[in-house]
Design a protein that fits this description.
This protein is mainly alpha-helical. It has 8 helices and no strands.
């Protein structure tokens, strides 16, 4: 005979079962929440770590300025110490020096807008000092290259690798002024050795550099516009002077050779003979006049 279960007993059993599932559901939910929290914390830590790493690799304004200043000073010292003629890797050294300078310049130039008047003046002076030192270094390099790189045989062309038009589109308002100044420094250091083909490359680079400047003209500061104008004026003066000097030298040589040709030609001999004839005629006329005067006496 099946025993009857009291309603109270069924209710108690149902409540226990319900509490059991509720308890385990809460436990599972808490465990899931804990795991999620730990995962989120792990992601946060990773982000914070990455952020810290990025911060430590970015130089402050003072650090970037000091690094730039020290590099310019070191270049001046190296240039004043003279040229190491025993080295054979000057192509690599020159390229590395240019790259190192650009890296330091870009690092400090991003803070240039925040400089006070004193630092801004010092910064501009450092740029001028660099251009002077680098011009001298390029002259030293070209002399070495002409006399050594080709086994003692003089080269007819200078290094034109800096006149790479492919890099012009990458110039921005922050570095195009430096591009102009570097261009002028290169021309000043090498204009005496440029061939006609070199001048063509220079003119092409100049035209495209000017086009790039015009495209970002509205982004340039008044100071940069002024310095670019000075660089353009200096380049035009050097270009005109150099080409005029070359032309005058060429014309002078041609005139000299033409003079030699005339002197050695039949025309020259005829001129010489005509002069003698005129001289003899004048002499005879003078003698006749003298005889007439003597007879009258």
């Amino acid at each position: 005979m099946e025993e009857d279960i009291l309603p109270e007993t069924k209710l108690t059993t149902t409540m226990k079962s319900t509490n059991f599932f509720k308890k385990h559901t809460l436990v599972y939910g808490a465990s899931l929440l804990l795991v999620s929290t730990q995962f989120a914390c792990s992601k946060t830590d990773t982000k914070e770590t990455a952020s810290t790493t990025t911060t430590t690799t970015t130089k402050t304004s003072d650090e970037a300025y000091d690094d730039y200043k020290n590099y310019v000073t070191q270049m001046e010292t190296d240039v004043n110490s003279g040229w190491d003629s025993t080295a054979t890797d000057w192509d690599t050294r020159m390229e590395a020096a240019r790259t190192d300078y650009d890296t330091r310049y870009n690092a400090v130039n991003q803070y240039a807008g925040d400089f006070d008047d004193t630092r801004r003046a010092e910064y501009e002076e450092l740029q001028s000092r660099w251009n002077t030192a680098w011009t001298t270094r390029e002259q030293q390099y070209n002399t070495w290259k002409q006399t050594n790189q080709s086994g003692g045989k003089a080269m007819t062309k200078v290094d034109m690798s800096s006149m790479d038009v492919k890099k012009i589109p990458s110039y921005t308002a922050t570095n195009i002024r430096t591009a102009y100044e570097d261009f002028v420094a290169h021309v000043e250091a090498n204009k005496a050795n440029y061939t006609n083909d070199d001048w063509k490359a220079v003119d092409m680079y100049w035209a495209q550099l000017d086009d790039r400047k015009n495209a970002i003209q509205s982004q340039l500061s008044d100071k940069d516009k002024w310095e670019i104008t000075k660089a353009k004026t200096k380049y035009q003066t050097m270009k005109a002077g150099s080409k005029t000097g070359n032309a005058a030298s060429s014309v002078g040589s041609e005139v000299k050779e033409t003079g030699k040709d005339i002197s050695n030609s039949k025309v020259g001999e005829a001129t010489k003979d005509a002069g003698k004839a005129v001289g003899n005629t004048a002499k005879k006329a003078g003698q006749k006049i003298g005889d007439v005067v003597k007879d009258n006496d």
